[in-house]
Design goal:
seven-stranded mixed β-sheet, 7 strands
Length: 229
């Protein structure tokens, strides 16, 4: 893990602290596997955690229309990138300030993909104007208490693609086969990630998922302890 500390604490509503953790990265890096293992590990340590996808706001007015856009082809669509970044995530940031994200009964909300990968795909596939604007004005988007950028060597991602998965789309293919695309993605991901209160990068190329989840769970527990003081 490569830590970059930021000051800040957990979001709260009605006195109940909720640690917001974003786990993001390029396709086939092991993001979903790490999230599932971390939720399990936190549960084993007595901390309730939930995986969340989509907008942070419970009743985002444009969530349903946005879901009709193909994220698999987002890197080839300036419109999809613009719609998600501004009609989706920028508005989500405003709404979440009024009603901070809260998952009933959970101390930790782990967001599976959000602004960071959307910006990174917009830069790698474009670069599109909306993605460039997001890098220039990152304050338009919600920061997380902890952001985890998951990566893996492109060779490892290609092997995972060749080994098969339930669904393979054009974004998977490009992420695992197109090295210049991958390089642009990771440069943009690092740049947009600086807005978070704390940022760490995890390389899963030669890591055991359970071991990595254990380390991440330890980091989350330390942040929870700090927020409780």
């Amino acid at each position: 893990m490569d830590p970059t500390d930021r000051t800040g604490g957990a979001a709260a509503r009605e006195g109940v602290p909720v640690l917001l953790v974003a786990v993001d990265g390029i396709d086939l890096a092991g993001k979903s596997t790490l999230i599932e293992a971390t939720v399990h590990e936190l549960g084993e340590r007595g901390v309730s955690a939930a995986r969340h996808r989509g907008m942070l706001t419970e009743r985002h007015p444009l969530d349903r229309p946005l879901r009709r856009l193909s994220l698999a082809r987002q890197q080839d669509s300036a419109f999809t990138t613009t719609a998600y970044l501004f009609a989706g995530f920028a508005l989500d940031n405003v709404l979440a300030r009024l009603r901070p994200p809260l998952h009933e009964g959970c101390a930790v909300l782990i967001q599976d993909g959000y602004v960071d990968r959307t910006v990174a795909f917009g830069i790698a596939g474009g670069p599109y104007l909306a993605a460039r604007a997001a890098l220039r004005w990152p304050g338009l988007f919600a920061p997380c208490d902890l952001a985890v950028h998951v990566t893996a060597d492109i060779g490892a991602r290609a092997r995972r693609l060749d080994a098969g998965r339930d669904h393979i789309d054009v974004r998977d293919e490009r992420s695992a086969r197109d090295e210049p695309f991958s390089d642009r993605f990771h440069q943009a991901l690092a740049a947009i990630g600086r807005r978070h209160r704390r940022l760490i990068t995890i390389d899963t190329t030669d890591r055991d998922p359970a071991e990595t989840a254990g380390e991440l769970a330890g980091t989350i527990l330390a942040l929870l302890s700090r927020a409780a003081r």
